[in-house]
């Protein structure tokens, strides 16, 4: 039972709430509830404001992006001088230069823009999802199969070649040489923007002058690796050119030669290909396999690569020169200056091709126009269906269907649209159908 005091309360127990303590307790509870409601309301308001700002920013960016797309390829029939199209915004503003401004670009509207988009980008599915000819854009359907009436526009071609040389400087930057890459100079990587100091050892590996300096070829074949080449019967037509360019050390084994030809003057090689197929020459076995692969090419072929696009593949690509020399190969390794990629990307951005990096295909077309009187392009087709509405593979030699279509670095459909414009202007010939035998 316990002892009780006179008040009747058990000894050791807490005193009961008085009226004043109860009021204080209720006030504190109400205050805390009010604070919770206030914080909840404030958080919702911040989220609404942030969402509205994001939507506004995205809408402005989309409108600016669409306006930038209304820029087309250079006018080669009538020269005009409109103001430059605005460049995409960047976080860091470049310092103002005191040098004289560059010449404005000569630009003309393309008559082959998809009419359904009112001059903006064509609207169609991702490349890897499109397998119906009827859904392809109009510019793809406008290409005839080996048009016998095609003629090169020599006046326009000369003007366009001169413009490319001024803007991209392919004759000087396409190949690293001892002259344009002296000892102790630095080159800046195209992607990560770090710098590489040119050593005496690397300088000695470079040619004194570009092997293409002061050269012009009457005609050139640029041979992509697209599945559109399968059963094309274009091999003899490709081999009839004076200079033949292929990509990514693509195979030219006998089973493909009827469609792709057998001759090669220059073949590109990128770091990803070295890593996937030859493990960046980590073992003698991988080097031996690489040497065996090169046996299918002509003994005087140039192996062209870009070791200064990213530092990830620099060492492996620079090894190609040493491997060829050690194995007494007459084939020669040549390298691209990274500024060439930057100038080419800037040029094509002004023509409406916006992407993180140009494909080697468009870069080679840009260079070939400077080297060749006539440029013929084969194996370029960024869809998985041909003109007969038949499914084709991404690569003529790969079993997989989609291959490299899913690539965040490139928009090969946009590049192909520009190539069709060049074709319709008579600056290049784009072959997307079957070829006739040349006896």
Automatic annotation (TrEMBL):
Disulphide bonds in the chain: 220-372
Q: Which GO terms describe its molecular function?
A: sialyltransferase activity
Question: Residue spans with biased composition (Polar residues)?
Answer: 107-120
Membrane topology classification: Single-pass type II membrane protein
> Which InterPro entries does UniProt cross-reference here?
Glyco_trans_29, Glycosyltr_29_Sialyltrsf, GT29-like_sf, Sialyl_trans
List, alphabetically, the CDD domains matched.
Answer: GT29_ST8SIA (cd23963)
Q: Which cellular compartments is it found in?
A: Golgi apparatus membrane
User: Which key words are in the record?
Assistant: Disulfide bond, Glycoprotein, Glycosyltransferase, Golgi apparatus, Membrane, Signal-anchor, Transferase, Transmembrane, Transmembrane helix
Chain intervals with Basic residues compositional bias? 87-96
- Does the record carry Transmembrane helix as a key word? yes
Q: Name one GO cellular component term.
A: Golgi membrane
**Any single Pfam family the record assigns to this protein:** Glyco_transf_29
Please list every transmembrane segment annotated in the UniProt record, as residue ranges.
24-42
| Location of the region described as Disordered in the Swiss-Prot/TrEMBL record | 77-128
Which coarse location class describes where this protein primarily resides?
Answer: Golgi
The keyword Disulfide bond is annotated on this UniProt entry: yes
Q: Which PANTHER family match?
A: ALPHA-2,8-SIALYLTRANSFERASE, ALPHA-2,8-SIALYLTRANSFERASE 8F-LIKE
Which family is this sequence assigned to? Answer: Belongs to the glycosyltransferase 29 family.
Indicate what this protein is called per its UniProt record. Alpha-N-acetylneuraminide alpha-2,8-sialyltransferase-like isoform X3
- Taxonomic lineage from the root: Eukaryota, Metazoa, Chordata, Cephalochordata, Leptocardii
């Amino acid at each position: 039972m316990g002892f009780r005091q006179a008040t009747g309360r058990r000894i050791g127990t807490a005193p009961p709430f008085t009226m004043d303590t109860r009021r204080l307790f209720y006030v504190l509870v109400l205050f805390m509830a009010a604070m919770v409601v206030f914080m909840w309301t404030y958080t919702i308001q911040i989220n609404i404001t942030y969402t509205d700002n994001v939507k506004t920013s995205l809408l402005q960016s989309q409108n600016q992006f669409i306006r930038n797309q209304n820029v087309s390829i250079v006018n080669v029939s009538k020269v005009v001088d409109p103001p430059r199209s605005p460049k995409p915004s960047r976080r860091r503003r470049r310092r103002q230069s005191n040098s004289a401004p560059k010449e404005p670009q000569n630009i003309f509207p393309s008559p082959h823009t998809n009419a359904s988009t009112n001059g903006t980008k064509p609207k169609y599915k991702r490349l890897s999802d499109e397998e119906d000819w009827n859904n392809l854009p109009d510019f793809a359907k406008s290409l005839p199969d080996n048009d016998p009436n095609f003629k090169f526009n020599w006046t326009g071609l000369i003007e366009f070649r001169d413009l490319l040389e001024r803007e991209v400087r392919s004759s000087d930057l396409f190949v690293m040489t001892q002259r344009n890459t002296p000892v102790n100079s630095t080159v800046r990587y195209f992607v990560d923007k770090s710098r590489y100091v040119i050593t005496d050892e690397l300088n000695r590996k470079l040619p004194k002058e570009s092997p293409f300096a002061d050269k012009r070829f009457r005609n050139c074949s640029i041979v992509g690796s697209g599945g559109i080449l399968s059963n094309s019967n274009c091999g003899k037509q490709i081999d009839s050119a004076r200079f033949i360019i292929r990509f990514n050390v693509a195979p030219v084994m006998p089973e493909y030669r009827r469609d792709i030809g057998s001759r090669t003057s220059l073949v590109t090689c990128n770091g990803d290909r070295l890593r996937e197929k030859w493990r960046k020459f980590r073992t003698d076995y991988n080097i031996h396999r690489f040497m065996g692969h090169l046996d299918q090419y002509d003994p005087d072929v140039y192996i062209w690569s870009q070791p200064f696009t990213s530092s990830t593949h620099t060492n492996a690509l620079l090894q190609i020169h040493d491997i060829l020399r050690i194995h007494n190969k007459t084939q020669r390794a040549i390298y691209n200056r990274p500024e060439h990629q930057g100038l080419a990307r800037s040029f094509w951005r002004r023509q409406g091709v916006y992407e993180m990096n140009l494909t080697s295909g468009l870069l080679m077309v840009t260079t070939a126009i400077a080297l060749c009187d006539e440029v013929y392009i084969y194996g370029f087709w960024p869809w998985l269906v041909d003109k007969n509405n038949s499914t084709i593979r991404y690569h003529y030699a790969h079993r997989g269907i989609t291959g490299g279509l899913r690539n965040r670095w490139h928009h090969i459909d946009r590049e192909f649209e520009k190539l069709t414009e060049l074709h319709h202007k008579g600056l290049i010939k784009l072959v997307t159908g079957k070829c006739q035998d040349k006896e």
